[in-house]
Design goal:
single chain, 148 residues, alpha+beta, four-stranded antiparallel β-sheet, 7 helices, 4 strands, globular
């Protein structure tokens, strides 16, 4: 049976498992290119930010999927910059040396808070991933139901 629950930022091993699912699910995506350390900081930020969150789907105590969401992306990005600028900067430098053209993408990401500001209330699904070995078994749907 698959259980859906909220992840806490102190569950570092679980967040590492979520990062592994991300890396295996989103091959070729920019955030995947940024690497494990960057993703770890990002998903911990979802857990720590008051208006955001990270859900995990677990089967027999093992993470098989995740969903990241926010009700205030502008606030989330500001929170990430305020609380994790040095680690994000460090991982961005590594990405820059691996692919210098990534620099423009990185700069755009840091300017994101002003682009995503909204006046209405909302909750937006930012990322959803399911372990590729168990896709098409309804895990994504269960995660979305958990968010609702």
């Amino acid at each position: 049976m698959i259980a859906i629950r909220e992840v806490k930022s102190e569950e570092k091993e679980l967040i590492n498992d979520i990062v592994s699912i991300h890396l295996n699910t989103f091959t070729g995506f920019f955030l995947t290119f940024m690497g494990r350390g960057f993703l770890n900081q990002m998903y911990r930020s979802y857990c720590d930010h008051d208006e955001s969150g990270l859900l995990v789907a677990e089967e027999d105590g093992k993470a098989v999927g995740f969903l990241a969401y926010s009700g205030n992306f502008s606030g989330l990005y500001k929170y990430m910059i305020k609380t994790r600028l040095i680690p994000f900067g460090w991982y961005s430098v590594g990405a820059f040396f691996r692919r210098p053209s990534a620099f423009i993408h990185i700069i755009k990401a840091f300017l994101k808070p002003s682009e995503v500001k909204r006046d209405e209330k909302y909750v937006e699904l930012s990322s959803i991933g399911v372990d590729p070995t168990i896709k098409s078994k309804g895990v994504g749907s269960l995660l979305i139901d958990g968010l609702k």
